Amino acid sequence: MSKRIALVEDDQALRDNYVAALGKQGYEVQAYANRQLAEQAFAKRLPDLAIIDIGLQDEIDGGFAVCQQLRSMSKTLPIIFFTARDNDYDTICGLRMGADDYLTKDISLPHLLARIAALFRRTALLNQPQTPSDLIQTGELIMDSKRMTVSWQKHNIELTVTEFWMLHAIAKYSGHVKSRQQLMDESKMVVDDTTITSHIKRIRKKFMLVDAEFDCVETVYGMGYRWKN
């Protein structure tokens, strides 16, 4: 059964091009020109993945609102921002709102397709049978890689798909420093340093909401990150 992708993009030429390109890859694509049309559709049925532009017609930040609505409806639905806005502020805003990836429109089509495929590979793990190796327990952290659940001090921590696999890559080898490249390899993604830093900050903040003293995700300057108990 083909995966359903929602494309929220106000530029008709771009919208048509990407609908055609994604359709050739076997995806079922539903395209929306503005926030209202997208939100009406999502209220009836969620896609398997969403690709969202930030500026939508007369709403300069309409895509952010779409992302927030989707994330409130599903914690694990993969969301990609695909925008011409290439700056750290918008990138950080997008990731804080729960997006799994932030891409600029100058990337190649094969690059976009690779990012989509990586997110689908990771969500597919949710449906596989569970084995003991799926569980990570270190200190007060419990992670289940099949159900994609995380708990800290018996409190659930809601992470996005990307946040989960980045944390999994660190916690799986407690005490070992993971470089940014190793984080990308183990979480099956290709992002820049700014995006990784933003995800790590977001993960820390989510843990600190339930434990203000949380400091287990440690930055090792010039090397990467590690989990410390």
TrEMBL record:
The modification 4-aspartylphosphate is found at residue 53. GO terms for cellular component: cytosol; protein-DNA complex. Residues 133-229 form the OmpR/PhoB-type domain. Keywords: DNA-binding, Phosphoprotein, Transcription, Transcription regulation, Two-component regulatory system. Residues 133-229 bind DNA. GO terms for biological process: regulation of DNA-templated transcription. One of its GO terms (molecular function) is transcription cis-regulatory region binding. CDD domains: trans_reg_C (cd00383). Residues 4-120 form the Response regulatory domain. It comes from the Bacteria. SUPFAM superfamilies: C-terminal effector domain of the bipartite response regulators, CheY-like. It holds the Pfam family Response_reg. NCBIfam families: marine_sort_RR. This is Two-component system response regulator.
